[in-house]
Amino acid sequence: TTMSQPGSQQLLEVLKKSEQPLDAYQIARQTGLTPMNVGRSLMKLVKKGQVRYLDELGSANDLSARVIVVG
Q: What are the tens digits of pLDDT across the range 61-70?
């Protein structure tokens, strides 16, 4: 489908409003999504070039890595 991942827009809005980088746990608390779902959505947003990780990922499922919006 052409629909974006549920919550992707919500994640971007939370990150844009934030004064500092956030990790998946912090975003999950603000959106009501699970950290795992946030992590998956973040990976997709990173691949699209909309957000980037500030911290080196310990693993592909590193939910404590902080992200920022690009641009």
A: 789 999 999 9
